């Protein structure tokens, strides 16, 4: 099968959507499919052989963050050229409701279109206002996927229609087989994310840190991710700042080793999350997880059975839970065991097969069975137009 995948966000700025698309493309390539990914990228960015650059992205405020997107006449021309050259059996776009390559592809593409919706935002005024512009493009989509029930709910409430829920995928064994790094072991708590993006929650963790260190002065906080380390610790008492170690950006291999090494992984994110891929990666690596009680996080953690939850933005609740877990190795071992079992449902062997079945359904519909002749139950599960 010739598969085209459209990435809305800049390839050279790491994020959950980009990682999902990268791993999905490589999963299909391993299965023998021909895959091309169209993504924004700076001209000097080294790209995998399957990625085609749509040009430089620009920063745009989106969903409580700043996304680097690509949109405009030049981008539209590159989309059309990519579609023409690719002659794809199916095109899979991500975030088609954002001002990005996905929306441009909706306008330009002919043939089977699959769309994945990642955003969870129950009060998106921008999406409501843009509905009339988006409607014509979204009507061309053959099947819709949402990465979580909360992303599906956002889609239903703002744009109508429905979607099948297929979560983000992870190569579970890649994380499970990583070797711990000795210098990252020994009473360590970990955080991975953009440290200068408030919704990732590092300020909440920093506010909780003095209380954690008062109870367990030997504990260290390890932080991996881009951003200003000095700004991150400016509200910490000076004598405690040495207990926070900033590693900067880390490779995929070191991320896996990081998660295999820490005694407790903390995800203090405050909102705007539709899934929580870092939680799946942490569980894959065997790290006990403590996360804010966002709806999407609770779902990934099996409502607290596979990882513990604390009240969102409550630094005292975070500190109390972290201290209790650090002092209870048996509870951490229990979470490690439950997380390792629960996470298997997110492995690419399951997630990739589910996405491929969607592709096969919509491509079969164009070659063998007319769309209106598909079974109604299947049409509903794939988010196809209602009868």
Write the layout of secondary structure elements.
Elements (H helix, E strand, L loop, with lengths): L1 E5 L9 H15 L3 E6 L11 E3 L4 E5 L2 E5 L3 H14 L3 E5 L6 H8 L4 E5 L7 H5 L1 H8 L4 E4 L2 H11 L4 E2 L6 H5 L11 E5 L9 H14 L4 E5 L4 H4 L11 E5 L3 H10 L2 E4 L9 H8 L4 E4 L2 H6 L7 E3 L4 H12 L2 H14 L5 H20 L8 H6 L6
Parallel strand pairs: 1-2, 1-6, 2-3, 6-7, 7-8, 8-9, 10-11, 10-13, 11-12, 13-14, 14-15
Antiparallel strand pairs: 4-5
Short description:
With 387 residues, the protein is an alpha/beta fold.
Distance between the termini: 29 Å
Strand percent estimate: 15-25%
Q: Pick out the low-confidence regions.
A: 367-379, 383-387
CATH architecture of the largest domain: 3-Layer(aba) Sandwich
- The strand line-up of the biggest sheet is 3-2-1-6-7-8-9
The gyration radius over C-alpha positions equals 21 Å
Summed over residues and divided by their number, the pLDDT gives a mean of 88
- Fold-level CATH name of the largest domain: Rossmann fold
Instruction: Please state the overall shape, judged from the principal axes of the Cα atoms.
Output: globular
Q: What helical percentage do the residues reach?
A: 40-55%
Query: Could you state the CATH homologous superfamily of the largest domain?
Result: Glycogen Phosphorylase B
Count of discrete structural domains: 2
Q: Total helix count? A: 16
Which CATH C-level class of the largest domain is it?
Alpha Beta
Largest sheet: 7 strands, parallel
Strands, count: 15
Structural class: alpha/beta
Pfam families: Glyco_trans_1_4, Glyco_transf_4
Domain Glycosyltransferase subfamily 4-like N-terminal: 14-173
GO biological process, one term: carbohydrate derivative biosynthetic process
Organism: Streptomyces cupreus
């Amino acid at each position: 099968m010739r598969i085209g995948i459209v990435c809305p966000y800049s390839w050279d700025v790491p994020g959950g959507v980009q990682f999902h698309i990268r791993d999905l493309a490589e999963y299909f390539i391993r299965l023998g499919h021909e895959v091309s990914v169209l993504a924004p990228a700076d001209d000097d960015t080294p790209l995998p052989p399957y990625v085609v650059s749509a040009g430089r992205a620009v920063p745009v405020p989106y969903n409580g963050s700043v996304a680097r997107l690509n949109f405009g006449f030049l981008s539209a021309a590159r989309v059309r050229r990519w579609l023409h050259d690719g002659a794809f059996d199916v095109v899979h776009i991500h975030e088609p409701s954002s001002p990005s390559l996905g929306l441009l592809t909706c306008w330009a593409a002919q043939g089977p279109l699959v769309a994945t919706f990642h955003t969870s935002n129950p009060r998106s005024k921008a999406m409501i206002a843009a509905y009339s512009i988006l409607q014509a493009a979204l009507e061309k989509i053959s099947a819709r996927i949402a990465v979580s029930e909360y992303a599906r709910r956002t889609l239903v409430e703002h744009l109508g229609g429905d979607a099948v829920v297929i979560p983000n995928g992870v190569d579970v064994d890649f994380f499970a087989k990583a070797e711990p790094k000795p210098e990252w072991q020994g009473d360590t708590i970990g955080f991975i994310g953009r440290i200068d993006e408030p919704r990732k929650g590092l300020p909440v963790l920093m506010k909780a840190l003095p209380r954690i260190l008062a109870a367990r002065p030997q504990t260290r906080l390890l932080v991996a991710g881009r951003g200003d380390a000095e700004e991150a610790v400016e509200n910490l008492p000076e004598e405690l700042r040495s207990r926070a170690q900033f590693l900067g950006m880390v490779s995929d291999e070191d991320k896996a080793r990081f998660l295999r090494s820490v005694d407790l992984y903390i995800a203090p994110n405050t909102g705007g999350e539709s899934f929580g891929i870092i939680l799946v990666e942490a569980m894959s690596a065997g790290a006990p997880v403590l996360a804010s009680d966002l709806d999407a996080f609770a779902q990934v953690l099996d409502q607290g059975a596979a990882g513990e939850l604390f009240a969102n933005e409550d630094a005292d609740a975070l500190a109390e839970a972290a201290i209790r877990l650090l002092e209870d190795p048996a509870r951490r071992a229990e979470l490690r065991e439950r997380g390792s079992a629960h996470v298997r449902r997110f492995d690419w062997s399951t997630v990739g097969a589910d996405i491929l079945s969607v592709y096969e359904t919509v491509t079969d519909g164009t070659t063998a069975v007319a769309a209106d002749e598909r079974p109604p139950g299947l049409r509903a599960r794939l988010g196809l137009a209602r009868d």
